Automatic annotation (TrEMBL):
<dbReference type="InterPro" id="IPR030394">
    <property type="entry name" value="G_HFLX_dom"/>
</dbReference>
<keyword id="KW-0460">Magnesium</keyword>
<feature type="binding site">
    <location>
        <begin position="318"/>
        <end position="321"/>
    </location>
    <ligand>
        <name>GTP</name>
    </ligand>
</feature>
<comment type="subunit">
    <text>Monomer. Associates with the 50S ribosomal subunit.</text>
</comment>
<keyword id="KW-0963">Cytoplasm</keyword>
<feature type="domain" description="Hflx-type G">
    <location>
        <begin position="199"/>
        <end position="366"/>
    </location>
</feature>
<dbReference type="Pfam" id="PF13167">
    <property type="entry name" value="GTP-bdg_N"/>
</dbReference>
<dbReference type="Pfam" id="PF16360">
    <property type="entry name" value="GTP-bdg_M"/>
</dbReference>
<dbReference type="GO" id="GO:0097216">
    <property type="term" value="F:guanosine tetraphosphate binding"/>
</dbReference>
<feature type="binding site">
    <location>
        <begin position="230"/>
        <end position="234"/>
    </location>
    <ligand>
        <name>GTP</name>
    </ligand>
</feature>
<dbReference type="InterPro" id="IPR006073">
    <property type="entry name" value="GTP-bd"/>
</dbReference>
<feature type="binding site">
    <location>
        <position position="212"/>
    </location>
    <ligand>
        <name>Mg(2+)</name>
    </ligand>
</feature>
<keyword id="KW-0342">GTP-binding</keyword>
<dbReference type="InterPro" id="IPR032305">
    <property type="entry name" value="GTP-bd_M"/>
</dbReference>
<dbReference type="GO" id="GO:0046872">
    <property type="term" value="F:metal ion binding"/>
</dbReference>
<feature type="binding site">
    <location>
        <begin position="205"/>
        <end position="212"/>
    </location>
    <ligand>
        <name>GTP</name>
    </ligand>
</feature>
<feature type="binding site">
    <location>
        <position position="232"/>
    </location>
    <ligand>
        <name>Mg(2+)</name>
    </ligand>
</feature>
Length: 442
């Protein structure tokens, strides 16, 4: 990593601002969980009510003095703000408080730096850190801001800052090239799965909603899962079999959070593209969370930002084991389509219903039937196998070969047409739509 984090266990003063605008408010409980996930020990919590931030200190001078006294009393090493700070505000606060000052974005980046395990994950975190630190370089070189006269005092001044910025730009460019290669490799993998007609499913949701626990339950894996924010950072893909559907690829992704820093979304675009290219999104929701509805909206906003807002979504209301009198169930909309499943990844309750819902949502256009084949149709049979559509094959009493297939209707119709076989009958709904449009339907 370009920037190594300080060892954990630091004493921290937490500052939570409350503004009149609803869009600016953060959750204080979530803030404390973030600090705990970063490994810091909160020794004091201060709420600040303001109409708007102060340009110099973000908070008023009286509150700065109150925070300084708490820093001295608790011998705190860091003060953390539950809001974004400008570089100048950070510098002014550090001078006044005589300790390190961190804002919400820096806190999240620190957690991500701890969680990154793969080479790709570390590159993505480093890219976000570099963008974040590029505007804060000056605080390390304040003694060289102005050229001074006198022997030994003619420093390089801003030349040193420009040198550092050039080095940062070069490093950012190199990381972006490497991440572009990663993105192309992921694209190749997705194209291979599409050629094999294997659906892609991504688990998305608010951080700590239980995505990794559900992933482990569905795939019998041992992906790291913990009751903490951003326990998962690096994406994991596994192949599972779903009844009446066949193999699907399941992807566990990084969790979302309120006001996720835009630079972080940009840095993790290669990872988040797994969600964008999915056939179905499983939106995992912590059903026992009192902020459940707001968390759903936050996730939907991030999905819109990365271009996945229009993809099919199946909501999974997880952690029903923490709720009273809630049984596993499936909820449908007015059209009869499954839109929500209530289950518990921790206990396994309702997982069978979830698999049933996945099969139904992805298998609406699937055809499951037996086809009689003769010896002249070997090429047709080989194409069926190449697309992974053959479930089984056997000979009937008359010695005729029969192949059991399950694959998308459109692909099977195309193969049958190429082989000179009679086309599949058009589904009733499509037949009626064609008639209404004045088209000829077979």
């Amino acid at each position: 990593m370009f920037f190594e984090r300080h060892e954990g266990g630091e004493h921290a003063i937490l500052v939570h601002p409350e503004f009149s605008e609803d869009s600016e408010r953060e959750d204080p409980r979530e803030f404390e969980e973030l600090v705990s996930s970063a490994g810091a020990l909160a020794v004091a919590f201060i709420s600040v009510s303001r109409l708007q931030p102060s340009a110099r200190f973000f908070v008023g001078t009286g509150k700065v003095e109150e925070i300084r006294q708490l820093v001295v009393a608790h011998q705190a090493e860091v003060v953390i703000f539950n809001h974004s700070l400008t570089p100048s505000q950070e510098r002014n606060l550090e001078r006044a408080l005589q300790c390190r000052v961190l804002d919400r974005t820096g806190l999240i980046l620190d957690i991500f730096a701890q969680r990154a395990r793969t080479h790709e994950g570390k590159l993505q975190v480093e890219l976000a850190q570099l963008h974040y630190m590029s505007t804060r370089l000056i605080r390390g070189w304040t003694h060289l801001e102005r050229q001074k006269g006198g022997i030994g005092l003619r420093g390089p001044g801003e030349t040193q800052l420009e040198t550092d910025r050039r080095l940062l730009r070069a490093r950012i460019k190199a990381i972006m090239k490497r991440l572009e290669r990663v993105r192309k490799q992921r694209d190749q993998g997705r194209r291979s799965r599409r050629r094999a007609q294997i659906p892609n499913i991504s688990l998305v949701g608010y951080t700590n909603a239980g995505k990794s626990t559900l992933f482990n339950r569905l795939t019998d894996s041992d992906v790291y899962a913990a009751d903490q924010l951003f326990a998962t950072l690096d994406p994991t893909l596994r192949r599972i079999d779903v009844d009446e559907l066949g193999p699907v690829v399941l992807a566990d992704t990084v969790g979302f959070i309120r006001h996720l820093p835009h630079r972080l979304v940009e840095a993790f675009r290669a990872t988040l593209e797994e969600s964008v290219q999915s056939d179905l999104l499983l939106h995992i929701v912590d059903a026992a969370d009192t902020e459940r509805d707001d968390n759903i909206l936050q996730v939907e906003q991030v999905l819109d930002e990365i271009g996945a807002g229009e993809l099919p979504v199946l909501q999974v209301y997880n952690k029903i084991d923490l709720m009273e009198s809630v049984a596993p169930s499936i909820q449908r909309n007015e059209a009869g389509e499954i839109e929500r499943v209530w289950c518990s990844a921790a206990t396994g309750e309702g997982i069978d219903l979830l698999l049933q819902a996945i099969g139904e949502r992805l298998g609406n256009d699937m055809v499951h039937m037996e086809l009689p084949l003769d010896h002249s149709q070997g090429r047709f049979r080989a194409r069926l196998y190449a697309l992974g559509g053959v479930v089984a094959e056997h000979c009937d009493e008359s010695g005729e070969m029969r192949v059991e297939v399950r694959m998308p209707r459109q692909d099977l119709s195309r193969l049958m047409k190429e082989a000179g076989l009679d086309p599949l009958p058009v589904p009733e709904e499509e037949y009626l739509d064609r008639l209404a449009a004045g088209e000829e339907a077979p």
